[in-house]
Amino acid sequence: MWALLVQGDGRLAGAPPVDAEEQEQPHHVDEVPVPGGGLDLRGNDAGDGPAVFVILGLGAIVMMLVFWVEFRFEPPWWVHVVIWAPLTVGLAVWLLRLLKALLIAQQYTHRSTALDG
Fold it and tell me: Which residues fall within 8 angstroms of residue 51, CB to CB, at 6 or more apart?
């Protein structure tokens, strides 16, 4: 799994897994990406696992930071809204994309889908 994170080929951006022959082709900025990279992703299902980890993990971290900022600097309530609302939404969307992509990549790697037949 760490190999997925170390490689800088777009996996942290939530890019779909690609076949070996697709990796050899150069990717240019002017290319229009195909959703799913041409893969049959109908049988892949990440479920609610990533959402639970994002809600609980990110919620705990953000709340610890909120309390630290509140007790350390005592800002007005609107400063909390300006800081924490966009940060929480942005991180939640990014983490959901990342974790769902990682789970689907694992399903693709191990060929564990409902359509394997």
Answer: 96
The predicted model scores a pTM of 0.67
> Using CA atoms, how far apart are residues 96 and 92, in angstroms rounded to an integer?
6
21 in a domain, yes or no? Answer: yes
pLDDT tens digits for range 42-94: 777 778 888 999 999 999 999 999 999 999 999 999 999 999 999 999 999 99
Residue 115 in contact with residue 43, Cβ under 8 Å? yes
Query: Which of 95, 70, 92, 72 minimizes the C-alpha distance to 81?
Result: 70
Residue 115 forms part of a structural domain: no
Return the beta strands (E) in the chain as ranges.
none
How many domains would you assign to the chain? Answer: 1
Q: Residue 20 is part of which domain span?
A: 2-110
Within a domain: residue 39?
yes
